[in-house]
């Protein structure tokens, strides 16, 4: 093969959008991190060289041109000139990418007393200067960029023989002892078997006086509003212990139990920790659709333990509440006043579950949306979600015109902003029409996805590009599965066969030899067809479980698939992590 079989849709769309005049910096940086994850350094070097020539005053474009030129090994001296020039134009991302580029040039780490000869002390010191600066102003950088900064620092400290500092940087990277020798990892996600998935690092947000949001203390976020009549909680995470930890950090422990608990929907990651805030006089409020949705989810057993983690099943203090009973159900827009603070409760269909309840604070202009804008249209491995419900809710939010959106998960609050909504609503409306038309033409789902549909109107709404791309494929997939039968136009589903049966058939093609599976999967992985490689490795191991080559290659492919989805898809990230039995600790 001369190139990949499958199209990298995200990469193609990001390259197009990043070239538009006035492209959002988030789009450009997201493209850069996606290129690194795809091992497409030469492609990145060529792309950003062109972009920097078209935008001579753009420090980020110059920095990325130099960064990828170094990574591709193309005229390193000229690349360093670009990086240094970028650092004179602007402060922030140029230092970050210069530090990472130089870290990649440093010799590999060896054991103490056996350092590689000729280590470039000057480069290592520049890496430390650049990346320590980044960490000193870390609040100005997205969390997803910090992990790679610690990787670079660890490599620089190792090159200088500063082992204790290198070990601390590696620990803070969350990637384990081999983290310094991996390609830069760009993700805010962390996942462990015990704690489950987190989409970012735990921290607090106070978007208005007396409003406190606990971000990423659990998979789902939750909030507390102080009123003269007591504390009002919005959602409660999965685990009571994690809610208590957030309340302690916020100095709210002595205010529990709360007077009111408002639940945005019945999913466990928003209701499970309610024991930490409920008392005998706490009024629990939810949508009128909550009981039916709670009953549905009560009978659902998540197929992946990394979603919630094992702690909630092992530690009594962390055990979630599965039987929350609301005291008041809301079936229409309702105003509730607690201690002089007005809460407007708005039941909507939403994009994830039919029992969605938004909470609007008119005095501050804050809208707590729960998961109505969940870009995956519900949990991907269960039957829920509504593309039409999402579109209806986006229109409602636009007309309400809140000042700020507080979503049910940290990365959604960061990306799906009220500013992005202006372009996101019409873009998804156009995508909905496109997808329905293709479904009507009996086009198979993979072919619809491979169009990589990118509405031209996004040119005028740069802040909506990344939220749209995060949503696009899952929006189409959910719509497709809700509008088609279990027999597909291309024959899929007519006669389902088990993995074991397919493995036996493929083994015939492989001549009964594990080596044939290894060769095919290695070729696919080397050209970037990671999902196809896994589809070869899985049946290969079913037929040849003794093959260490297949097992090692499968592990490598799974880790790379984690990297491929490390930016925008926590569900794929956690699934591949669980299949690999891999863990990524929170970044320090």
What can you see in these coordinates?
There is one protein chain. By secondary structure, this protein is α/β, with parallel strands linked by helices. A 7-stranded mixed sheet has the order 3-4-5-6-7-8-9, with helices on one face. Strands 10-11-12-13-14 form a 5-stranded mixed sheet. It is globular, with a radius of gyration of 25 Å. Helix 8 runs antiparallel to helix 9 and helix 20 packs parallel to helix 22. About 0% of the residues have low confidence. The longest helix has 23 residues.
- Distance from first to last alpha carbon: 42 Å
Q: What class would the helix/strand composition place it in?
A: alpha/beta
Oligomer: single chain
**Low-pLDDT ranges:** 109-117
Report the total helices: 23
Strand content: 5-15%
Which features characterize this protein?
single chain; 588 residues; alpha/beta; 5-stranded mixed beta sheet; 23 helices
Draw up the topology in text.
Blueprint: H1 9-18, H2 25-37, H3 41-54, H4 59-72, H5 76-89, H6 93-105, H7 121-136, H8 146-159, H9 163-173, E1 190-192, E2 196-198, E3 203-208, E4 211-215, E5 222-227, E6 230-234, H10 240-249, E7 260-262, H11 268-271, E8 283-287, H12 290-298, H13 311-314, E9 328-330, E10 334-338, E11 341-348, E12 356-361, E13 366-370, H14 387-400, E14 404-407, H15 410-415, H16 418-440, H17 445-450, H18 465-483, H19 499-509, H20 514-526, H21 530-543, H22 548-564, H23 570-580
Parallel strand pairs: 6-7, 7-8, 8-9, 13-14
Antiparallel strand pairs: 1-2, 3-4, 4-5, 5-6, 10-11, 11-12, 12-13
């Amino acid at each position: 093969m001369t190139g990949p079989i499958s199209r990298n849709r995200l990469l193609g769309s990001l390259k197009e959008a990043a070239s538009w005049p006035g492209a959002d910096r988030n789009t450009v940086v997201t493209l850069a991190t996606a290129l690194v994850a795809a091992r497409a350094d030469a492609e990145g070097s060529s792309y950003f060289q062109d972009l920097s020539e078209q935008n001579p005053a753009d420090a980020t474009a110059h920095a990325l041109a130099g960064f990828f030129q170094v990574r591709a090994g193309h005229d390193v001296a000229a690349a360093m000139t670009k990086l240094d020039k970028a650092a004179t134009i602007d402060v922030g991302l140029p230092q970050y990418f210069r530090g990472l580029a130089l870290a990649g040039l440093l010799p590999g780490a060896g054991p103490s007393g056996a350092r590689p000869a000729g280590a470039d002390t000057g480069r290592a010191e520049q890496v430390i200067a650049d990346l320590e600066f980044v960490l000193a102003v870390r609040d100005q950088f997205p969390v997803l960029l910090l992990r790679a900064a610690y990787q670079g620092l660890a490599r620089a400290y190792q090159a200088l023989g500063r082992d204790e500092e290198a070990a601390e940087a590696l620990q803070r990277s969350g990637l384990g002892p081999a983290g310094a020798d991996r390609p830069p990892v760009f993700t805010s996600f962390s996942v462990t078997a015990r704690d489950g998935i987190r989409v970012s690092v735990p921290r607090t947000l106070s978007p208005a006086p007396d409003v406190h949001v606990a971000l990423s203390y659990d998979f789902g976020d939750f909030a507390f509003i102080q009123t003269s009549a007591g504390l009002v909680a919005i959602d409660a995470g999965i685990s009571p212990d994690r809610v208590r930890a957030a309340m302690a950090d916020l100095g709210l422990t002595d205010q529990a139990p709360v007077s009111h608990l408002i639940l945005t929907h019945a999913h466990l990651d928003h209701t499970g920790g309610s024991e930490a805030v409920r008392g005998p006089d706490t009024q629990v409020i939810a949508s009128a659709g909550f009981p039916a949705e709670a009953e549905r989810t009560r009978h659902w057993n998540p197929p992946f333990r990394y979603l919630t983690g094992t702690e909630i099943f092992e530690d009594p203090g962390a055990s979630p509440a599965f039987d929350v009973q609301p005291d008041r159900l809301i079936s229409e827009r309702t105003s509730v006043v607690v201690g002089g603070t007005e809460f407007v409760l708005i039941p909507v269909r939403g994009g994830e579950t039919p029992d969605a309840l938004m909470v609007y604070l008119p005095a501050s202009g804050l809208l707590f949306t729960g998961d109505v804008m969940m870009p995956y249209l519900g949990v991907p491995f269960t039957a829920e979600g509504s593309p039409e419900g999402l579109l209806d809710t986006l229109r409602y939010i636009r007309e309400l015109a809140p000042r700020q959106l507080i979503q049910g998960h940290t990365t959604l609050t960061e990306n799906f902003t009220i500013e992005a909504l202006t372009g996101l609503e019409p873009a998804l409306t156009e995508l909905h029409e496109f997808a329905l038309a293709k479904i009507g033409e009996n086009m198979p789902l993979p072919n619809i996805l491979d169009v990589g549909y990118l509405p031209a109107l996004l040119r005028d709404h740069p802040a909506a590009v990344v939220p749209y791309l995060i949503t696009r494929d899952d929006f189409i997939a959910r719509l497709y599965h809700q509008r088609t039968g279990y027999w597909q136009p291309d024959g899929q589903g007519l006669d389902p066969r088990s993995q074991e049966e397919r493995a036996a058939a493929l083994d015939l093609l492989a001549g009964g030899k594990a080596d044939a599976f290894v060769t095919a999967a290695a070729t696919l992985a080397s050209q970037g067809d990671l999902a196809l490689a896994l589809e070869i490795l899985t049946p290969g191991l079913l037929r040849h479980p003794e093959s260490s080559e297949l097992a090692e290659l499968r592990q490598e492919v799974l880790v790379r698939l984690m990297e491929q989805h490390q930016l925008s898809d926590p569900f794929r990230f956690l699934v591949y992590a669980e299949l690999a039995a891999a863990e990524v600790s929170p970044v320090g």
